[in-house]
Give the backbone structure.
Amino acid sequence: MTQPDASTLACDLIAAGHADFLAGQSRARIAQEPTDYVARYQLAAALSAAGQADEARAELGQARLLHGLLVMKQWGADLERLQRDPGYAADLGRTLYGEGHVALASLAYDAAVEAGAREPSTLLSRALSLQHQGMAEEAVAAFEAVGRLYPSAEVTQFALPAMFAVKDGPARHAAAARRWASQYAPARPALPFTNSRDARRPLRVGYVAPSFEQIQVRQFIAPIFDHHDRTNVEVFAYANQPEEGAVFAAPVRMRSLGGLDDRQAADLIRSDRIDLLIDCWGHNAGNRLTMFAQRPAPVQASWLNYQQTTGLKAMDYVIQTDFVAGDDMAGLFEEEVWRMGDACGAFRPDPGPRSSPAPCLIKGHATFGAFINPAKLTDLTVELWAAILRGAPGSRLVLKYQYFLDPVLQLTTQARFLAAGADPDRLEFRGRTSGAEYHAEFADIDLALAPTPCPGGTTSMEALSRGVPVLTLKGQDFYAKLGLSVVAPALPEMVAETPQAYVAKALALAADPAEMQALRDRVPSRFDAAAYRDEAGMARRLEAVYRAMFQRWCGAAEAA
């Protein structure tokens, strides 16, 4: 954020309880040069450290604006036109967003709105740019405002995933999901089903997602598709677009829902005589949840990519592991929660190397890492990771995601860590990579840190698959506990019961390179032995769950 010496001094002042002194220094610099955005970032950090949250937020906003305008000018933007031409500002926002510069994009979208832009695509993109830089409350407010202007199932739905990172997120999400469902997907009287009620026959199971090849469910769905017992289950996959190129080890009947409205899609599924219809995508863009309200199958369940409630009365079950059990779940689900032990799905890592030597043995200091969307970088996560950096001399934290190359997001993130007393110069930002280059970067990380209360999923799985241990916090609510489903089956000793234990575990490993290496040596065999790595076994488990659900429906249908 500044030159190393100045940055370290600012960090030392906050750590020593002299945030007010740092604030005074920063104000003096701003008085001399009002456009000194670095001084404003430091002032925001000092105010936050001093407990002046509202003032800190306002000052951080000023820092982001001044910094962002300077960057956009350096990159060739016409700032005068930006302020008066909503079309130009919106186009600039789209360009910046497309390049992954979400913080800069949000500033351009702000200018577009101030200049009069009101089209839903601009307003939604502005809200998304806020969400993806970790401004959860602001994003939710922005999404809800768009929903009021342009009420529809698709637009209103955007606010739901953004609620994961806000205070009281599970409760707020549950209420919003129910409101959405009652308005856009109310339960409708189901047509009579002609499905045979012979509960012992092969079941016809349909899976619904935007795609089964191009999105993050690929590594989880392919193992199940490949290992379903075709004498027990006939597999249908309903995607938004045809996927004739999708190749699985066993037959899958691919169906396209693209261009079909809800009734037409439901009729297609009914014509396939599906017994159990499984939604794999939840309230994310491209879903077909409103189609589930048509009740095209006797049994309907949510699984895999969305672990919160859909809010739909027509959704019978949500499938989860035992790790998320808790009293806090009562009333938060419209569906019945069906638990299936220590795993509810399989994970197939992409081919790639497993790193062996712990980097700390070579570098002489620990390197922590989090390959996460900045949307998951909550205040509690920053607090915990800053405490780890403070307690582990010389340690570094690698934050990797395409959005972390945004210069405004970088300084904003550094200011947040500075406010928590951590030296911002010990953060290392990395952008998007893929394939072998992406896999190789895990070799730079001693210990992967899972965020909270929005834990890592795919990224934590990938870290373990590369031989990197993952530390996760149990969390206070069921959603925060989802990280246990990844870590506990492989490394139960890396589940921390409390925030204090989370920090202590990281610091103990940072102080003992030999133990860090010993832990690293345990990861491959532990990961391979985890339940979610038994692809055939997980397929059998799911089939047993499906069979039990269908048998229950048969019994209820007979009783009726």
Observations:
- The chain has three domains: 47-182, 203-346+537-559, 359-533.
- The two ends are 68 Å apart (CA to CA).
- The CA atoms of residues 471 and 494 lie 5 Å apart.
- The chain has a mean pLDDT of 95.
